[in-house]
Structure formats: structure tokens, C-alpha cells
Amino acid sequence: MSTNGRRPSRYVSMPNTPVDRDMAREPVTTEPAGRAGRYAGLFAYARTAAERIAASPHRPVTGRAVRLRAAALALLDAPHRTPPDHEVPRTAAYDALDVLVEEWPSLAVGRLDGADVMRSRPGLWGRLMTEWPMMEYADALVAALPRLYTGTESVLEIGSGVGNATARLAPLYRERLVWTDRELSLVRHSRWPGTGRVFDFDLEPPDDLGRFDAIVGINALHCAADIARTLGRLRRLLLPGGILLLAEGNSPTRSDGTPWALDLLFNAFDGWWDRGGFRTRSEWREALSSQGYTDIRTSAMTAGSDDLGGLIWAYRPE
Ligand SMILES: C[S@@+](CC[C@H](N)C(=O)[O-])C[C@H]1O[C@@H](n2cnc3c(N)ncnc32)[C@H](O)[C@@H]1O
Asked: Which residues form the Methyltransferase type domain (predicted)?
């Protein structure tokens, strides 16, 4: 246990991040009203997209497309979900699923990949990343950081992308924040307080990146070529006693193997289909402990009986 005095009780209460079912010591909080219905609606919509891809006469000829179609079949194998009888807000995830079905003939033969499809629909990727459900991961992480590590003097964000969390972190941490992505274009175009840097977490960090009290990442680290090696790199960027706090989705979401609703969509993208997509909580624990992190904890974002992932945090020993 840290003695640096800035780490509060490890068993903190975090609104909207209910207990990880296999971490009995974590506190139980309630699921926000409406999340289960919204998720059931999204799941049913993704299943319809999967039906159309599975029934399409266009057969996949690339590794990416083969995985995408396999993800469609896995969704169809999962128990049917009745969408809620009330209307649920339609977000960019629905639009992106529509586009996926529309572009399937080109995706199947490798004429396009997910990134090409998004480039041809300006604004869609930014909306997809910052609207529900993706924004819930950023919200949970930003709310939890000050509770898990008080008096944070320096924060590094990895894989900041279009700034789902950066936009929320920057007003709080200002010049104490360094946000990073491997894509120069994303870093260059961002205009938040703090410093934007290019950092490819598959490689050694730039020498002058600095060392940090807190390193955070939202739905980014699962893209790593070798998660354990990257975790080792990040540990060296942490100050003694510092926290690594991740928000990551989870798939499958049920013990019967039901995939996360958007597995299908994200299989169109490099960094997902070729890297294994979301990991399970036990895979994160194992990778963290193999790299010498301590006090490994998790919390779950549930939607009824689906476990959508949530927070994972651990500390660099003093
Ligand atoms: C799914 S997006 C999430 C972005 C952002 N964290 C969010 O929540 O909106 C994943 C991000 O990780 C970045 N990424 C993928 N592999 C990376 C790597 N090896 N090093 C750094 N960033 C990487 C991508 O460029 C992308 O911006």
C-alpha cells in the first residue's frame, strides 16, 4: 500500500461504476436508469446489421472482412434481445452500423477499410467516439481519477484520439496534462490546454516525455501489439506510487459468450480485428501483475446482465 499520502482509500465509491462481480470488496453502486434499455436497443440494431451482412451475396476475401463477417455470425449466435418498447436515443453508433452495411460490398473485397469508410463520412468518427456508448467510458474515468489519486500533479493520456476524454481532462489538469496519440494529425489539430505529443505506445517513448503521477487511456491500450510490453513501458513513465487508470470495454459481455454490440463494427478497423479487440478483466489483471503493478482493481459498467467493461486501475510500487 502506498505511503505517499495522496492515494485515498482504495475502496472508493464511484457513481455509475457498479461492482466488478469478481471483486467482492469493491463497493456496489447502482446502474444509471436507462442504460440497460439503451444497450438492448443498440444490441438489437447491431444484430439486424449482422443479419444483413451474413445474408449478403458479397463474400469476404480479406482477413479483415473474414473477421468482420465472423463477428456478425457471433452476434447472430447470441440470444435474441427484445429492444425496449420505448424509444431510445439514436446515436452515431447506429449511423456507423448503417454505413457498415452499406459499404459491406467494398469492405468484403478490401476496396475499402473502416478508416476509408469513416474518412468518406466527415464527422462520423468523431461523433462515434464521443457519443453514447463510447462517451460513458470517458465520463467514468474522468470522474474516478481524482477519487483514486488525489493531488495529481501530472497526467499522461495515451491514445487520446479525437479527445473523448481529453476535452474533459484538459480543463481540470490544464498544463499538467500531456495528451498523446500515435497519429500526428490528431495531435496537431487538437487545441486543449496542456501539451499534445506523438507517442506510439508500441515503441519506446520519446526521451523528454516526462514522468507522471497518473497515466490514463480510454479504449486505446487494447490496440497495443504487445499489451504486457506496453504496460511495462508505461510503468517506467509513472512516478513511484503513481496510478495507471484505464477505461476499456469488455467482450464477451456475458458468460454465454455474447459479444459486445459493436464488435461487429470495430472489426472493420486495423488495430481491432488484427489485435484481438477488447480483453477480459482477468486478461488485464494478468498483464498488469506480470509487469509489477500492485493493488490491481476494476469496476464494471453493467447494462442489465451485460458487463460492458469499465475501469481498471493499478499502481507503480513506491
Ligand atoms: C478507439 S480510439 C479511442 C480514442 C480515445 N481514447 C477515445 O476514447 O475517444 C483508439 C485510439 O488509440 C490510438 N492508438 C492505436 N494504437 C496506438 C499506438 N500504438 N500508440 C498510440 N496510440 C494508438 C488510435 O490512433 C486511436 O486514436
From this structure: 156-244
